[in-house]
Each structure stands twice: as C-alpha cells, then as structure tokens.
Amino acid sequence: MSSTFSLRSLLSRKVLVLPLMAMALAGCAQLSAPGYYDTPRDSTQSDARIQAQGRSKGEPPSQLRFGFGADAKSPDEAAQMQREAQIASARVPARPLAEAKTYLGTVPCLNEKNMACPASRITLTLAPTGEWRARSISVTDASAGGTRLEQGCWEVIGSRPLRIMLRINKEGSKADLSFVNDNVLRINSLDGAQPTLDYHLTRQADVDPIKELADRPALSCGQIN
Is domain 95-212 given the CATH code 2.40.128.640 in the classification? Predict the structure, then answer.
C-alpha cells in the first residue's frame, strides 16, 4: 500500500510540473519572437493627429516658433519685410488694370464758365503699361474740328474703391476716376471740374487703340501701382 501511495504522489507531481514547463516554454518562444524588443510604431490615429498639428517628430514642442519672445522679428526686420512686400505688390497691377480696356460714355459740359458748351462722347482706353489714350467727340460737331485726342499716364491714387488719376505730361490732371466695378468707371472730376451728378464710362467689348495717336511715340509711364 505504501508503494502504491508513493507512485500516485509521483504521478501527481509530474502532472503539475508538465503544465508549468509548457508555460515556461511558451514564454521563451514569445520573448524570442522577431520584433519583440522593437519599439512599437505610432498608430495611424497618432500619426494623423501629429500631422494635423503640423509638428515634426524630430522637433520637441518647446522648439516650435510662433513669432513671440526671442522668435519675434526686430522692428527693422519687420519694416524691411513690409517695404519688400509693398515693392512686390507694386509690380502687379490691380485686377481691373491688368489688361487693356476701353470705356465709353457721354458726359455733359462741365465748364462753369461756358455752360453752353456741348456734351462730349468720350472713348477712354487704359493700358496695363500705365498709359491712357482718349478721344472726345462733340455730340453737336462730329467733324475733325469737334474731336479732341489726348494721351498721358495714369496712376492709382486710392484702393477702396480703386481710384486712378489721368495725368498729362505727368503734371497736369485730366480726370479723376473710380472703379464702380471692373466694367464701370465713375467720373469724379474732368478737366478740373467736378460734376454734381454721377456720370459713368462703361467698358466696351472691343479695345479701341485710338489709332489717331498711333504715330505718336509711346509714353514711358514707369512702374504702375
């Protein structure tokens, strides 16, 4: 009976030892699996969050620059950047002036000293080079004697709304005009006179080069705004 008890005890110990050995072997296999000791990569969600925040993984948050404190630009640097931006913007004409356009309209006599003068039909062509040409024809005299041809340089004198000055010989002022929109010009003044009512010039489908002035040399109007 004693021998039988010893045999059973031995078998019980083996039954307990075998599962423990199996667990130990499984643990070793897991530890030895390829990539077990590798640092886990960020999840797709984490990558998306980092990309949305615009932060590089190689740059700690403390090194991000927001333009404050030590990262702020000095007044001289800021002023220089502003001047450069203004120069760059001056090289690009405003949208309504980016291409040659012709405007047409009839304007009454604005000469206070001679109210009997007739109205004029004005054709105005603006070129992106800064040059303008105009043809004014009297509505009562369409002959050559009733036609006046002029040219000069325009310059931007306002932005809201866009406003230009038509100059002759870069000194005298012919007209002060505002853009109601890309296709309509409002006359603020003409030949030194200010109208009491609103008068407009409307853009035409075709550009009129004012061929009567073709023989005159092109003007050097310089950089436009």
Answer: yes
